[in-house]
Amino acid sequence: MLEHVTRALVALALVAGGCGGSSPGAHVACAPPECAADSTLLLVAEVDPPSDSSLVRQEFGSVTIDPATGLFALALDQQVTLKGTVLIGTGAQAQMVGATVVATRPSRITGRPDVVYQAAVSPVDGHYVLVVSRNLPQEKYTLRVTTTDTSLAPPKTLSVVAQEDQEVDVTLEPPLTLPELHGTVVDSLQQPVAGMQVQATTVATDSTAASVVSTTTVTDISGAFSIRLVAAPPDKVMLTATPTTLATGPLPSLSRVVDTTKLGPTNAMTAGLTMPPLPAAVEVHYNIVGVSTSGARVAVTPATCTFTADVSDPHATDGTTAVHQTASMSDPKTGEVTVDLIPSATGNRTYSVTLTPDPSQLFATMTTTVDVATAGGYGADIVLPLRSQLSGLVLGPDGKPLPSLMVMPAASTVAAALAATPATVAATPSTATAGADGRFSLRLDPGFWDIGLIPPADAMLPRLWLSQIDLNQDLDEGTIIVPSGAIVHGVVHDPSGAPLPHANVRIYTVSSGNAGCAADNQQCLSPPRLRAESPSGSDGVVSVILPSQPQ
User: Fold this and answer.
1) Does pLDDT of 380 surpass 50?
2) What are 244-269's pLDDT values in tens digits?
3) 58 HSE (CA, 13 A, CB side)
4) Which residues contact 336 (CB under 8 A, 6 or more apart)?
5) Distances (CA, A) of 508 to 34, 45, 532
6) Number of structural domains the chain divides into
7) Which residues contact 485 (CB under 8 A, 6 or more apart)?
8) Element (H, E) at 463
9) Residues 168, 230: one domain?
10) 306, exposed or middle or buried, with CB in 10 Å at 0-12, 13-18, 19+?
11) What is the dihedral of CA 193, 199, 205, 208, to 10 degrees?
12) For residues 46 and 113, is the Cβ–Cβ distance under 8 A?
């Protein structure tokens, strides 16, 4: 079957060997044998099978295009079915439980997010079925099971090498057999604090994010809580208490490191959390404004404003830290933001505030500080600078303007792409469209950007990426020439070798500079860039346009 499709592709390539683009105004796109795709590009791909298929997404860490024929093939590997039961306890005391099973592995494309497959566990019979792509050598999945009711059992994590279909039964330990942390959350006067969500996590490091290693509960009317840790907890865990909607008034989040090696002979220990002595919160108003191109101040509407302050008791002896964080949107008409903040008992308290305007705004994201007085009221205006303006002129390989070309910014590093934190908002940057004269302009937050130039479909031209554009001030890129395109054809086939119709194929290029980066150095790694995307036809054939071979 595959040989039949390949012969058809060769015939297609020969037919298409002349010019592509028959629509009025279309540019010339060539195909082998007249020209070849740029062989200096490091190509990778992702394939999403059709939604009505039982197949799962797969990545291809290398795509090779035959320079003579312009043909390539994407053959989906055999997938693996993991199935089994998830129970709490064993034997006659085993308990069915609703849960979620998540299998995760690093992407085979450097800079792309981890690959995640997920399945639900039936609360009726405890069964799950999870289909994943087969592991390559040296690969494995991290399987994490989390109960739907997180107060029942802590998450359980195990490693699985998925080379063939297999049964993976997961037994969650009965909660009463697990290590216990119990205590109360109280205020500085030893009064109970209800409505605080309590859990324990690993202690985060610069390279490792925290993960939950306990059940999750909410303090009751007496401020009490009891959580169960995983069977073999880390020597140190971070105990946290976060206010929920059940808590009264603006409250900080509390955290402290707990040494689990001190669990007593009963496999339990007391570890309470105490609110620092804090004055009552006050209502504060700020006007969020920006300086327009004319120099006038105008209201920024809307903007997300996140206020954060360390409100820890400097005299705490158990290492408890307290952080107050709250967020609010500026008024869509006036640009005013109103928040409840906690002042200092003896004067002003300094909050860090991160302001993220809507991407359509002229004004840049900014982090600054504000001082909160004991009386609250109106603070000074918070003034945002203009976003930097990027402009340029885009021409086709024939020297003519490319109207309707889309300009799409993207972060230059994996770290920047993943930079959203609890104090920031991951706002999609604005895009722009070139005018009839091929000119474009758009405003972006200062920093380094990769800029994608996406010609309209009927132009029969490839995407072009401008890398590491330093946009710390207005910048005119001048004239940009989009190269001519080369039409290449591929076939997508399923694990049996049959053509796979209606699969969505995405072709990326990977920066050659990534070879000099450590696999976990997100500050160094550049994300892969989408060069082409197209569905396969009823015969499994996909045709895309890539930059032509440099002459």
Assistant:
1) yes
2) 999 998 999 999 999 999 998 889 99
3) 25
4) 285, 286, 287, 288, 299, 330
5) 24, 6, 7
6) 3
7) 20, 27, 29, 30, 460, 461, 462, 545, 546, 547, 548
8) none
9) no
10) buried
11) -150
12) no
Residue 274 located in a structural domain: no
CATH code assigned at 120: 2.60.40.1120
Question: Would 337 be classed as within a structural domain?
Answer: yes
Residue 531 domain-assigned?
no
Tokens of 6: 């390949």
Question: Among 382, 287, 297, 272, which Cα is nearest to 337's?
Answer: 287
Within a domain: 24 = no
Q: Which of 153, 175, 197 is where one domain is finished? A: 175
pTM of the model: 0.87
The per-residue pLDDT for range 463-499, each reduced to its tens digit, is 999 999 999 999 999 999 999 999 999 999 999 999 9
Tokens representing 485 are: 């395109």
Is there a single domain that holds both residue 353 and residue 332?
yes
Sort strands 166-167 and 79-88 into parallel, antiparallel or unpaired.
Answer: parallel
CATH number at residue 349: 2.60.40
> Looking at 369, 384, 399, which one is the last position of a domain?
384
For residue 247, the enclosing domain spans: 179-266
* Cα–Cα distance for residue pair 30/487, rounded to 1 Å: 6
Residue in this structure with the two tokens 């998450």, named with its chain if needed? 155
Q: How far is CA 511 from CA 113, 415, 523, 548, in A?
A: 16, 15, 14, 18
- The answer to whether residues 204 and 167 belong to one domain is no
